[in-house]
Design goal:
mainly alpha, globular, 7 helices
Length: 141
């Protein structure tokens, strides 16, 4: 059954790359349901599905739902992968973007500062992503 979920997820990603966003959304959503049935409430693959659904919601013009899905992805990534995992840091950056899209500027700024702080601890000041975090903070300000 988990192979079906992986198949739906990969097929959804292919559809998205081909430009069929709604079809990709449906396939990723089905993969999410199957992953939930197989793995339960917490798993890295479920976080990946939620992240992808959030991105699609954002692209399709639903920033509120994008924010909802990304919040779930962040919480799951923190618990499953750990607070210092690179994917978790990236999840914070995406959550900041969706907060900004929902006019939650102070929350977006706090999330970007958190992502920068975690990246500083994990990677150090010389990591190339640090400039991107600083640039995003500057844009928010």
């Amino acid at each position: 059954k988990v192979t079906d979920a992986y198949h739906f997820f990969q097929s959804g990603q292919v559809k998205i790359q081909q430009g069929f966003l709604k079809e990709g959304f449906e396939l990723i959503n089905e993969a999410l349901n199957l992953f939930n049935n197989v793995y339960g409430a917490m798993h890295a693959e479920i976080a990946a599905c939620l992240r992808t659904l959030a991105r699609l919601n954002y692209i399709l013009g639903d920033p509120v739902e994008a924010l909802n899905n990304q919040q779930k992805a962040v919480l799951m990534s923190e618990r499953v992968l750990g607070i210092d995992h690179p994917n978790t840091i990236t999840e914070y950056v995406h959550l900041a973007l969706y907060c900004f899209a929902n006019q939650q500027v102070s929350a977006a700024l706090r999330l970007m500062y958190r992502a920068r702080y975690l990246a500083l601890i994990v990677f150090g000041e010389d990591h190339p992503e640090m400039a991107l975090y600083d640039s995003n903070i500057g844009l928010i300000l």
